[in-house]
Structure formats: C-alpha cells, structure tokens
Amino acid sequence: MSKLLFWIIFIPFLSSFFLRITALFDTKKRVGEKFYSLFAIFASAISAVLSLVTAFYNDTVLKETLFNWISVGILNIEFSLVLDRLSTVMILFITFIGTLIHIYAAGYMKGERRFGEFFAYFNFFMGSMLLLVLAASPVIMFIGWELVGLASFLLIGFYFEDPLNMKAANKAFILNRVGDFGFITALAILFVSLGGGIFSFEEIKSHIELIDRATLTLIGFLLFVGAMGKSAQIPLYVWLPDAMAGPTPVSALIHAATMVTAGVYMVARFSFLYKLTPLAGEFIALVGIFSALLAAVIASYQDDIKKILAYSTMSQLGYMFAAAGLGAYSSAIFHVFTHAFFKALLFMGAGAVIIALHHEQNIFKMGGLKERLKIVYITMMTATFAICGIPPFAGFFSKDAIISASFAKGDYLVWMIAVFTAMLTAYYMFRMMFIVFFKESKHKNLKSLPKSMIYPLIVLAFGSATAGFLGVPKAFGGNETFLEFLMLPDIKYHLSFSLEYMLTLLNLIVVSMGIYTAYLFHIKEINNPLNSTIFAKWAKNKFYIDELYEKVFVSSLRYLSLFSDRVVDQKIFDGIIFKSVNGYRYAAKVAALLNNGNVRFYALYIMIGVSAISIAILAGGK
Prior knowledge:
Distance between the termini: 104 Å
Strand order of the largest sheet: 1-2-3
Helix content: over 70%
Radius of gyration: 31 Å
Order of helices and strands: HHEEHHHHEHHHHHHHHHHHHHHHHHH
C-alpha cells in the first residue's frame, strides 16, 4: 500500500512533463484543447482516487523509502514519503479540490493561446504540493516547498507579455525567497543541534528533547519566517494581492489547495517542536491575528473582486496561525480544510462573473447578477455564509473553534481581535455580494458560461455547507471527530458549555452587525462617514505598505547594487585588474622597443654589454 504514495505524487509530475513536451512541439496546434484538459483532469483524478484509497489505512502510518539520497559523513537523508493522519487530510482535499479546479479551468481557459502549457504548469503545481505534504524529511519538504514557489511563479506570470504580470510573479518569487532563507537556516541549526543521523521528522521528534529551549525557540522563529512568506503573513504578505495577475483558476488553486496552506501545514507538522516553545507560539499567534485584522480592513475598501478575496485569504490564514500559535493545531488544520472548499468556490465564482462580464473585475462596474447568474449567485452566497461563520455552514464550526480556543487560553487580545475581524469579514464579504449581485446592472450582454465552470461550483457549495459537520463541538452534540482524528499534540483548553454558547452567540451578533452595516451602506446607500476620512484613503491604498517597501528595501537595494557596480566592481576590482593589465602592457612596450628586429640595435646592445662587463672586471682588478 505504501507504494501508492509514490504514484500519488509521480502521476501529476509525469502528466506535467508530457503535457509540456506536447505543447512545446505542437507548434501547428494540431492537438486540441480537449486532449490537454482531459489528460490533466484524468491525472489529477487518479491522484485523488489513490489518495482516497490510502485514507482507508489511516490507522497505520505508511512509509515508502524511494532511495537513499544523501549519505556523507553524519549527513544521511533518505528520499522517503510518509502518510499519517495529518498528511491524509491534506492530500485528500488537495487532490479533490484540485481536480474540481482543473475541470473549471478547462472552461475558463478555453481559447487561450498557451492552453496546453497552462495545464502542464497546473499539474506541476499539484505534484509539488503533494511532495511537500508527503515528505518524511524536512529537507524533502523543502524541495516541494521550492517547487511550489517555482510553479506559482510560472502561473502568476502566465500572461508574461504584460510587464506588470511579470513584476507580480517576480514579487511573489523574491519575497518567498526571503522567507525561505529563514526556513533553511532553521533546518541547518536543527541538523547541527541533533548532531547528524537520519534527518527525518520521526527522528527529529524522538530526539527533540536533546536540544536546549533557547535553540528550539530560535528554530521555531526561523521556521515561521518561511511560513510568513509562503502563507502571506505580516510582513511578507504583499505578494499575495498582486498574484491575482494570473488566471483565476490559478488564484483558486493557490488560495484553496496549494501554496498558501503550506505554511500552516509546516507549523502543524512541527507541532512537537512548537509545543516546547511557548514564546515562539505566542509570536505566531500575534502575527497571525494582526495579519487577519490588517487584511480584513484593507479588503473592506478594495474594488477589485479578486483582490478582495486575496486579502480575505490572508485574513483567514491569520486565524489559522493564531490557532496554531495557541497550540490548537487541529483547529488550525480544520479551518484549512473548510477554507479550501469555500475559498475555492469564491474564487471560481468570481472567475465566472469576470468571464460573464467580459473580463471586468471592478465590483462597482458589476451589479444586477442575482437573477442573470443564478447558480453562481447561490453558490457564492453559500461560500459567503461559510466564510462569515454563519451556522450551520462549514466556516462556523472551524472559525468558532479558533475563537473559543483563544478565549479559553486567556489570550484576550487575540480573542478580541478575532471577534472584531469576524465582523469585518462579514462586512466586506456582503459588501462584495450586495454590489455584485443586488445593485443596478451595469452590463446588458453577458457571456454564456460553459458547464465545466458551473458543475464544480455546485460540488464545492455542497462542501462549503456540510464540511463543518466533521468537527461539531461537544457543546453542540458532536464529538469533534475531525480534531480527534488528526491526533496532533494540541494544548487542551476547556470551556463550560454555557460559556461556549455565550461566545458563539456573541460571534453571531458581531457577524450580524457586519452584514447589517454592509446592507445599510450598499443596499440602503446610507452615507458611510468613514469614506471621506484619511483612514479610508490609506486603507484603499493598502496603507502604502508597498510604497514603503519600495522606498526602504527596493530603492536602497537598487542604490546598493549601483554602488557595488560602479564603485566596488568597476573602480576597485576592475581598477586593480585594469591597472595590472596596463602595467603589463607598458612593460611589453618597453620590451618591444628592445626587441625590434634591427641587427644594428642588437650589435649596440652587445657592445654596451661587453663594455659594461669589461669596466666591471677592470674595476674589480684594481
């Protein structure tokens, strides 16, 4: 059964290679779009089926060692894959939701010039993420981590003819390299601290007590730096909104099934380490909850439908990291799981709206689509209920578990920000829905949508409505099945049922306030007093964080590179080399004067030499 782990990963990679080679040599476009899309969907679906088969063996940890990759001195790294309950959950929703996004993409990308190349990159993305979550070693995980970064670069910059798209792709790639420096530094310190051996998660966990707490805390901080980049948290989040430059199916895949969830997964995978470093955990919780708040505020003032959802992802990831930092790792993964359904649905619904409106993305240029795109409206509203935490939709159970954990721990700052952010989430999501679907229509002619874009929305709507029932808390008659299944080393927090009911009621009240505020401002069109303030201007311009980074980091590095080029390189290093060369050239000229091929000059040199020697001998004789 462990052999299946290899095929779960290998099939997407193999299909990616085949599709890319086919697209490369298919210069005359003889291979139709149907072949590319069906081949890619079939490969993704096979991985999904194999993932489901392995899930039935969740009581046994499956491990497959493909080969011994590195064995030098004390360094021993096996290229091994492992399937436990955590990775089981991850591969199930990665492959299932990934397959639905593939089906959707077949309709969305219809008529694109580089159709086959797109699906090659798509499957490469899938394979990279599967390698990341099935890796038995942090080094193998890092390979998947980097391949995911490469895949995102290729897909975000898919429309590379536009310089702005390539700038967005470069921004994502470079900022993630900043985070990856922290990740790989943490792995180096961890390896040295353990003194070698087989560098796998299993071995690290069994010897973690040998490392002193200060070093463990440093490792925890550095690992999270990697997660900041990959999962778009403060301060390495600015790439995520710009990543909307890629096709909408790419956004759905990045935000729901791959890439941004990798950071949360990594923290959960290292939960045995973070449980011993409460200081690092508190830092993660604070960064996460402030990221959630910042993103929710910015989303409340955006006009681009995809950027609203991008900041929404950053905000929801903040909730996940807050939970992980508090030691509620299972709650964090539960929200990753439910979020995959409703966020994929939201992006795919937004893509359907964009296609129907001939690639319009400004929500204030939409409107009146409730009846004209009825299925899109119903499914997106289902996802909106889920992300806002309205019972009994999926997000209600997963987000409520995080908010309750923060209160139970006594971290009231995290709890208050989490509750306030829940209100903002309800506001900006219903603001978007009211403007797009309820306001007066701005478009007369809508483009018809292919069925391949509609059916996945219905499936995801079902998941957005029901996935939360896998983790119903005991206070509501459930057994927290999902949380118990993961078997992560959660720090247990206890609340009385009556207190949990009160917290839930409070959450529902603040969510209702957010919805009602959106209704007043965007249906009743009551004047929003904040719109004319300096705060609104700053929020609309994302608090000028991008401009700040441009001045502080980009410009300073540009000046440093110019200084290095013009002063250090050209004047110092090149100067020394050129002066040496000029010295040799001058010496060569002198030598050339002495060796000019004229016999009379050579006779003169001989006479001078003989005379000099004679004088020296005579002088010595005296």
